[in-house]
Structure formats: C-alpha cells, structure tokens
Write a structure and sequence with these properties.
Elements: H1 6-10, H2 14-18, E1 23-24, H3 35-48, H4 58-78, E2 86-89, H5 92-106, E3 113-117, H6 123-135, E4 138-142, H7 152-159, E5 165-169, H8 181-190, E6 194-198, E7 217-221, E8 232-236, H9 238-241, E9 254-258, E10 261-264, H10 278-291, H11 296-314, E11 320-322, E12 332-337, H12 342-351, E13 354-355, E14 357-359, H13 364-370, E15 375-379, H14 386-404
Parallel strand pairs: 1-13, 3-4, 3-5, 5-6, 6-7
Antiparallel strand pairs: 2-8, 7-8, 9-10, 11-12, 12-15, 14-15
Helix pairs in contact: 3-10, 4-10, 5-6, 11-14, 12-14
The structure holds pyridoxal-5'-phosphate.
C-alpha cells in the first residue's frame, strides 16, 4: 500500500472541483494545474505585469526579478551547475528544434551520425530530419527487442560507429517505458557523443539530476509538470550552449546590430529571442515549489499502484491487447481491443466522461513496428484515485461489450 494521500493532493487542483464528473487519464498529454500555479500567474498579470529586461521603471524590474528567480528555481530543480544553462523556450518541441538547428549549423559535419531510439516522439525525430539532408547528417535508430525494450546490444553497435549526438527520450509517451538512461548516457559520453534527453514525459516521473545523468542537454515542457502551457526549458552545458547557432533572432539575444552583421548576447539571453513567456516562467517556478512539498518517492509508488490496479483489472476484460509492459513503466498503459478501432473505444469512454487519448501519439514509426493502427492511452497522475481506476475498468468492460455486439 502507498502512504501517499491522493485525496489531499487532488484538493490542490481546482479542475476537479469544477469538473467533478470527469475521470482525467490524459496526463501524458497535459496535466492539470494546482491553485498555487493559477494564483502565481494570475497575481503577476493583475499586479505586476510588465516586460522584462527593458523598462527603466520599477514594475519592469520586479518582472525581471521574478523571471530570473524562476530560472534559478529551474536550475536548482535540475541541479544544473549555472543559471545561464537554463534557456526558457515555449516547450520541449521548441527546445529540441533549437538544439537540432544549433548543432547542425555549428558542431555537426557531413557524414556525422545521430542516434535516436525507436520509442521517440516526432519532436525528437523531425527536428533532426529537417536538417539532415542539407547537412549530410545520418540518423541511426536503436531498435526494440521482443519485449519492446531498447535493444542494448544494437545500441552498442551504433555507439561503435562514433555518433556525434545521442538523443533519447527518458520515458516513452506511448508505452510508458522508462529507458535505462543512466547507463546509456554514460556509454554515449564514453563513445564521445553529445547527449540529449527528451524529458517531456520523464520530468513528471523523476526529478532529473542533469549532472548525475551525464546529460549535456535536457528538454522539458512545464505543462506536463503541473505548470502552464507555452513554457519549457532547454537545459544545456554552458560550453555547448555557447556553440549553438540561435534559431530565432531579435530582442534581448542581441548585443549589437548593424546592417553589416550582429553580435549575440551572453547566455541565457543569447537563445531567448523576443518577449519571453514571463507569466509562464513564474507559473513553472510555482509548479516546482508546489511539487517540492511532496515526497518524490511516494508520488512514484502511488503512480505504480494506480498502474498495477489498472493492469490487474484489465486481465478480467476479454479481448484487450495490451501494448505496454507493467515493468519499467512510468504510469502509462496503452492498449487496443482486438479487431476494433482505438478511436471507437476512446469515444465510448468519452461518453462516460473518461478522458483518454486515442491515435498514434506522435510516434508513427513506433506504431509501424508494433503493427497497430494506433492505440488508446491511459496515463496516470498522482491526483487520480483508485476509485477512478475502478470506474475506468467498469467503463472499459462495458465498452468492450458494446463494441462486440
Ligand atoms: C516524449 C515527448 N517528447 C516531446 C513532446 C512534445 O512536447 P510539447 O508538445 O510540450 O512541446 C511530447 C509531448 O507529448 C512528448 O511526450
């Protein structure tokens, strides 16, 4: 049993007061926001609203302090070595695109190789592909073994080709699989690669220690960690961030501009063009402060309990084709009903106000490997209750009966 008090945790989230009928199991897509986050962003707009780094007035100085304090909060949360290593972006996708663009224009040369895995989200595939042809860079993909885990022997063979970059998701957004990143990144560093972690899902599972993780870069989105949408982070080792060509120009990323050319600002401003999402950064800092009140291990073991309760219940429902494994899973179970389209199942659950996601989950190449037309994803968060899991199992059993009729 878990000591974690999910009812008390849930009370921090106004969504569940306003929408008591909904069972929300679409947490891998986005999480709900605690009061602390809503109040922090609301308070900023109501009483402190101003642009950062620019105004001579006091309001702007307050906004700047709040924005830079948020950067410090993220730095501490990730255990980064320096605040200048925290770049605010609009999310994981923006972070990965900046990274791919920046590395392609400076560090990578024709014939260089990038290793990704078969579990990657499109954001960690397409952001590299956009430039590969032009720059002559090759992408290698680590396959999965029969257990749908990363094939570590195949990974060793790809490392033997001396890739310049190894870019991996921490947790599969489709299957929930947790990758053995500690070893994989250490081995990638030993092979001389720059290491990149797509932490979009991993951030909600485990607080990352980027120094211990041997991650040169770590990207995540606040909205999957109880923070606002439209704000995310590109963490990078300072020396490497300094080598990235900025993807966007303008605003504070400039030190001097003439029509002959421009000089860029120091980090982190160098990679933050235009007016940033100030309220978003403040909201992210509030999410981090909120989450830090809870025991991370308790949150994890409660999520495991939700997952196991759901998994055990599924064994009683005929016709379920489970794609995810229970082991090494960060709280996501993906399944199909044999012979039925995933959208039909999701639609029947929606009628019962159970929010799940159906489709390809931005992992088309993975579904090609799985030879499935898509799947329905159930993604748990610590505010979900065991009674909701039971409600979902009952609804699922009824839906299977309706589909079979
Ligand atoms: C593993 C993974 N990477 C990247 C992303 C993209 O995140 P965002 O849409 O917040 O930029 C997601 C979103 O679902 C994801 O799950």
């Amino acid at each position: 049993m878990s000591d974690f008090n999910a009812v008390a945790f849930r009370q921090h989230f106004p969504f569940f007061v306003n929408q008591p009928a909904w069972v929300y199991l679409d947490n891998a897509a986005t999480t709900h926001k605690p009061k602390a986050v809503l109040e922090a962003t609301d308070h900023f707009y109501r009483t402190q609203n101003s642009n950062v780094h620019r105004g001579a007035h006091q309001l702007s100085q307050v906004a700047t302090t709040l924005y830079e304090d948020a950067r410090l909060a993220v730095k501490n949360y990730l255990n980064a070595a320096d605040v200048a290593e925290i770049i605010f972006t609009s999310g994981t996708t923006a972070a990965l695109n900046q990274l791919a663009f920046g590395l392609m224009h400076t560090v990578l040369k024709p014939g260089d190789r990038i290793v990704i895995s078969a579990l990657e989200h499109h954001a960690n595939i397409v952001s590299w592909q956009l430039h590969c042809q032009r720059f002559g860079v090759i992408i290698d993909v680590i396959p999965l073994n029969a257990d749908l885990q990363i094939d570590l022997d195949a990974y060793q063979k790809l490392l033997a080709l001396s890739p310049k970059v190894v870019s991996l998701t921490q947790v599969s957004n489709t299957l929930g699989t947790i990758l053995p990143l500690e070893n994989m990144l250490r081995e990638a560093k030993a092979a001389g690669a720059i290491t990149v972690v797509d932490g979009a899902q991993g951030i909600a599972w485990q607080r990352p220690d980027v120094q211990q993780l041997a991650a040169d870069f770590y990207c995540f989105s606040a909205h999957k960690l109880y923070g606002p949408t439209g704000i995310g982070v590109l963490y990078g080792k300072k020396a490497l961030l300094e080598q990235l060509t900025p993807l966007q120009g303008g605003g504070e990323m400039i030190e001097s501009v003439s029509f002959a050319g421009s000089h860029f600002n120091k980090l982190p401003a160098r990679l933050e063009a235009g007016t940033p999402n100030i309220a978003g950064a403040i909201g992210l800092a509030a999410a981090i402060a909120f989450l830090s009140q809870f025991d991370a291990e308790q949150l994890k073991s409660y999520k495991r309990l939700l997952l196991k309760t759901f998994h055990d219940g599924l064994q009683q429902i005929p016709g379920i084709v489970l794609l995810s494994k229970l082991e090494n899973n960060a709280g996501i179970l993906t399944l199909n009903v044999a012979g039925e389209h995933p959208a039909d199942l999701a639609s029947l659950l929606n009628e019962q106000q159970i929010a799940v996601r159906a489709g390809l989950h931005c992992t088309m190449p993975l579904f090609e490997l799985l030879e499935q037309p898509g799947a329905v994803r159930f993604a748990f968060a610590p505010y979900n209750l065991i009674s909701e899991v039971e409600q979902c199992l009952t609804a699922l059993a009824q839906a299977v009966e309706i589909l079979a009729a």
